[in-house]
Amino acid sequence: MKLIFLGPPGAGKGTQAAGVSAHLGVPHISTGDMFRSAIQNQTPTGLEAKRYIDAGELVPDSVTIAMVKERLSMDDCKPGYLLDGFPRTVEQAIALDDISAPDAVVDIDVPDERLMGRLTGRRICGKCQGTFHISKLDDEKVCPVCGGELYQRNDDKPETIDTRLKAYHEQTEPLIGYYKGLGKLRTVNGDGQLEDVFKAILATLE
Ligand code: ADP
Ligand code: ZN
Fold this sequence. Notes:
The protein contains nine helices and eight strands. By secondary structure, it is of the alpha/beta class. The chain has a single domain (2-205), classed as P-loop containing nucleotide triphosphate hydrolases (Rossmann fold), CATH 3.40.50.300. The protein is globular, with a radius of gyration of 16 Å. Adenosine-5'-diphosphate binds at residues 9-10, 13, 31-32, 35, 52-53, 56-59, 64, 85-86, 88, 92, 155, 164.
């Protein structure tokens, strides 16, 4: 199964992708996670991507497409993939159709007014990379899963979030029409409890 999760920043793509990829037995490939680890390891891709990510802008297509192409050529992608955060532009979608076209695209739909609170309240574990929301944490600094230290992403500050939402509407939202035209789009309401969204995603894939 080759699957894409589409949706605005803060829609819950990463959280849902972790569960769905385990359920389907395909790797969860998050371009955001790949960029963050490239930045941490100071690879050439990381050095190039950092200034765009910190500004809330998209990393140039050429850099992103090359990174994903290499990732999809790895052995663990033989059974398929679950892409989270890619494609984010029509050019990326066209490139993916050439590399390895998806079977289905799940659009996780969340109204704009819910996204700011989800993003500003988001905390990441430096140890296990888990994502949490402060509303569900006893201690805003400690990972409830592994005890690691939680941090706030640089790009989860309100000023940067505005830029990211703008990039989403201008550059990524057109993909909804692109995949609708190909008959691959399934829309799921992402404005609910985690378990309910998870069930709705699995239901739409049956
Ligand atoms: P979110 O979904 O919360 O916005 P991600 O972790 O998916 O966050 O992405 C973080 C940042 O990484 C984006 O704002 C963008 O700068 C960069 N990025 C991730 N995926 C892509 C992509 N497919 N194309 C261009 N830039 C990307
Ligand atoms: Zn952790």
